[in-house]
Prior knowledge:
There is one protein chain. The protein is an alpha+beta fold. The chain is built from 3 helices and 5 strands. The chain has a single domain, classed as Alpha-Beta Complex (Outer Surface Protein A, domain 3), CATH 3.90.930. It has a 3-stranded antiparallel β-sheet. A hairpin with a 4-residue loop joins strand 3 (18-22) and strand 4.
Amino acid sequence: MHLALRSDVSATDGDFDMVLLNECTGRYWYLNATGAFILRLFLDGSERAEVARRAAERFPVSEEKASQDIETLVSSLCTADLVKVKA
Length: 87
């Protein structure tokens, strides 16, 4: 699975966090350090398994739990029309 920001979404990186703006709705979304880390990996082309592995290495969580949390994050971002899944 690959993710890309939708064309009408802008991203601004903080030191560790990220803010996404849906330019069509004017809604902002804040991603904490964990969410930003995960989204950056996807945007850089990492596959889901690689993202889960790297998240488990960086944060105090198992790879299985990281995978579940990643699924929740991706689902939320898709529901909010912030990202699109590319095959």
